[in-house]
Design brief:
mainly alpha; about 60% helix; 3 domains
Length: about 300
């Protein structure tokens, strides 16, 4: 079964138009989602996947002349004050000095630029934590891709158990073993099981006979899952903590934020803190059923 798993690279259904930049510097391409599906499943931090590609890759719009970046849907809605425009200009000048070639920016880099813009525009903590989360998801998209129907961490756990049994087969040739180990590493990462992911990556490397392309792919995989995504998650966690400190009045949003913070602690190797958050969500009377069930399951696993 695992030898048949593969990621899909189908065209995302998009509409594209050009709009003037609010900063008065040129125009930006704005992408709108025409169609999508949810057949790519979802992960523990509530990210969902389409088999046609992820719209979050296109949701952020950037003005190429000065790198002003916000969600495409906001490009025409926002009206910065003169003071905000001045602050934006200063910040963009700082960013331009360190970015080099704008075409070399990764998707998550543009989300980080957008975060700086939204801070100047006085976005609230809830909006900012969602922005950083989406940035981390674009990094995960790059690292692991899509598996049809991978519906959350419980199913990921089941698939990993099945895969461990398949690894014991004695009839696997080196190529088959590498495919199996690579797929297991990807499923483990989507499930947020970092130790197992790293174990499978090491085993993949030890199979040997890695060509230059495989070595480069492994290096990039490790960089994204070991450095890029955790950095973005830490930024999201700081904004979630600030949001929770503001004592939000909506109990559903409060439990969602508490759950997300717990899961991000889990994904970043801090289960002792994570389990406390999961316990709060599991017993909160206003927790959505999905979050209550997931929290109870994680509480039994950690």
């Amino acid at each position: 079964m695992f030898l048949m798993l593969s990621s899909l690279a189908l065209a995302t259904q998009l509409d594209i138009h050009v709009e003037p930049c609010p900063t008065g510097n040129g125009t930006a391409r704005i992408y709108s989602k025409v169609s999508a599906n949810t057949h790519g499943g979802w992960d523990s931090d509530l990210v969902s996947y389409s088999t046609e590609g992820q719209f979050r890759e296109y949701a952020i719009a950037t003005c190429p002349e000065d790198l002003f970046t916000v969600y495409g849907q906001d490009m025409l809605k926002i009206s910065p004050t003169d003071e905000q425009l001045s602050q934006i200009g200063v910040k963009l000048s700082e960013i331009q000095k360190v970015t080099g070639d704008p075409d070399s920016l990764e998707t998550w880099d543009r989300y980080l630029i957008a975060a700086e813009m939204y801070k100047i525009l006085e976005a609230d903590h809830r909006m900012l934590y969602q922005l950083y989360l989406e940035a981390s998801w674009t990094a995960r998209d790059e690292a692991v891709g899509v598996y049809i129907g991978l519906e959350g961490p419980i199913q990921a756990r089941e698939l990993l158990d099945q895969g461990a049994a398949e690894l014991k087969r004695t009839d696997l040739n080196p190529r088959q073993r590498k495919i199996l180990l690579h797929n297991l590493a990807r499923v483990a990462h989507r499930g947020g099981f970092g130790a197992e992911r790293d174990q499978y990556l090491k085993a993949f490397e030890k199979v040997g006979s890695l060509d230059a392309e495989e070595k480069e792919a492994l290096k990039r995989f490790r960089w994204i899952v070991g450095e890029v995504e955790p950095k973005l998650q830490r930024l999201a966690m700081a904004e979630i903590q600030a949001y929770l400190a503001s004592e939000p009045s909506d109990p559903v949003e409060l439990t969602r934020a508490t759950y997300l913070l717990a899961d991000l602690y889990r994904r970043n190797g801090e289960p002792e803190i994570a389990v406390q958050g999961f316990a709060l969500v599991a017993v909160h009377p206003d927790s959505p059923t999905q979050l209550k069930d997931l929290s109870a399951w994680f509480g039994s696993q950690l």
